[in-house]
């Protein structure tokens, strides 16, 4: 006897049409395991604001991609070895000269590999532009206050990327083992030896013995192509994730608040523009590499410890440390039979302190203001005079030290005394930032006054009219509503006020040193003389109604 079939679950039916082709079928298969459709729907329509200054971050990203692509290509031909060989390549002036395999392979790439010199120069120029773009991008974030809550962590990631990029660039141009890069490594060795107590041990560890040793180039190569790029890639991904999560800052304007973003969707508008901009950046850097020579190692020859190349200068982003060393007096202190080279050790300590100050600034400003709110609207730099003045003073200090790092070139090219240049840089180190701070702050306050006048009296039209009593005046036209909003929508925080010296029961309560310091700094940031009160609606109404005219 045949048993009746057991009732089973009803067949699964789908309202979705059959895939049109194999690509759609593959997409369906992937979606069933990764959920890409839901992910795309929630993220590909993400809105990004449209402003030219936001392209600075894109330049950082695109140059990093260019560095990785060209760097991978160069590793196929570069030999990171300090083993000695006799050059027998096509570059005649170097034939028969003893050199390291690293230097020989660099010359081989430049003259015997098809397109090798172009790729080398694209790689080097991209590194220079990468650091420059990160520097300018961070200044944009700083001056607009885009580092405030909730973006403090992203500021730390960005500062870390800048610092790692600087050191990775230094290691990169040290790899060819030419006379210029060898001089730079010798500079590093002197800085390491200046560290008290452990300097000698650090030098033995880094160089595998006495300078220059035979392992520094292979070690720099490993760190340059593996360790630091890996860390930077992780920081970059985290940085972009946080930008995506927190949403991008935007400048003040009608309809723009802390709760929304006004701009273009990620797909297809923003991605199309970003893709085109990537090829534009790549093309400009390729043109720079084809036109302007950078790091021609064959012109200075291989490194020899008994020689120093003339006009030896690091890439611009390491000029800060070079200038610190050159303006520092050659002080030495003998302690317990040991000599402390303060002329090198003090600048070696100032350099990381400056970097730590950059890292810590968002938390310092947050502590001074006591502001715990989220900020998604970018400031106009003029509306934060003290912050803007600090940023300008820091840039002036960097430029002074950059000039000090090239004091020998300035002396020879302009026929000046190198001692006079060094002394001027020493004075400028202390005086220059103060002067720039004062000028920048007054400049910002002047711009605030001009904005106030525009709001109350309108814009100048250039039309001159004569009043009934004979006075000639210029006719002012009222500003558009969106312009009025832009000029008046910014916040003006009030300084922190110390609690009363006695409480409601008459008991004395003295503020602590930290509280007094915070209150004093807060007055410096937001007190009288640090911001111009923006016009109120009542003042604007009085002026525009005619009651305020003479």
In brief:
The protein is mainly alpha-helical and about 550 residues long. The protein is built from 18 helices and ten strands.
Describe the structure in your own words.
This protein is mainly α and 550 residues long. It contains 18 helices and 10 strands. A two-stranded antiparallel sheet has the order 1-5. Strand 9 and strand 10 (472-477) form a beta hairpin. Helix 5 crosses helix 10 and helix 11 (319-327) packs across helix 13. The termini are far apart. The mean pLDDT is 86.
Strand content: 5-15%
Widest sheet: strand ordering: 1-5
Q: Number of DSSP strands?
A: 10
Helical fraction: 55-70%
Shape: globular
Distance between the termini: 114 Å
Report mean pLDDT, rounded to a whole number.
86
Rg, Å, rounded: 31 Å
The assembly state of the depicted protein chains is single chain
Return the string of H and E elements.
Answer: HHEHEEHHHHHHEEHHEEHEHHHEEHHH
Largest sheet: 2 strands, antiparallel
**Structure classification:** mainly alpha
Task: Determine the number of helices (DSSP H or I, runs of at least 4 residues).
Answer: 18
Low-confidence sequence ranges: none
């Amino acid at each position: 006897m045949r048993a009746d079939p057991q009732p089973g679950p009803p067949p699964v039916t789908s309202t979705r049409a059959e895939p049109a082709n194999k690509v759609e079928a593959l997409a369906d298969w992937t979606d069933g395991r990764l959920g890409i459709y839901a992910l795309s729907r929630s993220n590909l329509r993400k809105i990004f604001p449209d402003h030219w200054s936001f392209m600075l971050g894109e330049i950082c990203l695109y140059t990093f991609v260019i560095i990785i692509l060209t760097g991978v290509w160069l590793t196929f031909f570069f030999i990171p070895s300090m083993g000695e060989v006799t050059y027998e390549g096509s570059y005649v002036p170097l034939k028969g000269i003893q050199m390291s395999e690293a230097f020989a392979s660099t010359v081989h790439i430049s003259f015997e590999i098809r397109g090798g010199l172009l790729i080398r120069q694209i790689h080097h120029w991209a590194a220079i532009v990468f650091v420059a773009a990160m520097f300018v991008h961070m200044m944009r974030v700083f001056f607009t206050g885009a580092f405030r809550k909730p973006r403090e962590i992203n500021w730390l990631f960005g500062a870390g990327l800048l610092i790692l990029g600087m050191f990775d660039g230094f290691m990169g141009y040290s790899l060819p083992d030419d006379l210029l890069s060898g001089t730079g490594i010798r500079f590093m060795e002197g800085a390491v030896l200046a560290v008290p107590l452990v300097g000698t041990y650090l030098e033995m560890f880094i160089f595998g013995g006495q300078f220059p040793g035979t392992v520094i180039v292979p070690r720099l190569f490993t760190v340059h192509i593996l360790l630091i790029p890996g860390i930077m890639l992780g920081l970059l991904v985290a940085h972009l994730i946080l930008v995506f999560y927190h949403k991008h800052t935007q400048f003040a304007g009608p309809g723009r608040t802390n709760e929304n973003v006004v701009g273009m969707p990620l797909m297809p508008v923003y991605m199309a523009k970003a893709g085109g901009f990537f090829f534009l950046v790549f093309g400009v850097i390729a043109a720079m590499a084809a036109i302007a020579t950078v790091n021609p190692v064959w012109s200075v020859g291989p490194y020899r410890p008994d020689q120093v190349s003339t006009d030896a200068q690091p890439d611009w982003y390491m000029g800060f440390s070079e200038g610190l060393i050159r303006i520092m007096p050659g002080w030495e202190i003998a302690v317990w039979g040991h000599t402390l080279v303060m002329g090198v050790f003090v600048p070696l300590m100032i350099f990381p302190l400056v970097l730590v100050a950059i890292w810590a600034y968002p938390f310092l400003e947050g502590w001074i203001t006591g502001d715990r709110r989220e900020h998604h609207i970018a400031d106009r730099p003029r509306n934060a005079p003290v912050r803007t003045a600090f940023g300008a003073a820091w840039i002036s200090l960097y430029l002074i030290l950059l000039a000090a790092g090239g004091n020998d070139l300035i002396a020879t090219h302009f026929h000046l005394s190198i001692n006079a240049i060094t002394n001027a840089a020493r004075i400028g180190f202390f005086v220059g930032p103060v002067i720039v701070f004062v000028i920048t702050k007054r400049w910002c306050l002047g711009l605030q006054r001009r904005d106030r006048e525009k709001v109350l009296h309108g814009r100048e039209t250039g039309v001159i009219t004569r009043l009934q009593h004979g006075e000639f005046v210029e006719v002012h036209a009222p500003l558009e509503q969106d312009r009025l909003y832009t000029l008046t929508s910014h916040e003006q925080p009030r300084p922190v006020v110390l609690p009363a010296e006695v409480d409601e029961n008459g008991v004395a309560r003295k503020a602590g040193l930290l509280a007094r310091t915070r209150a004093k700094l807060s007055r410096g940031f937001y007190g009288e003389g640090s911001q111009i009160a923006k016009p109120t609606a009542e003042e604007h109404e009085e002026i525009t109604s005619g009651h305020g005219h003479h």
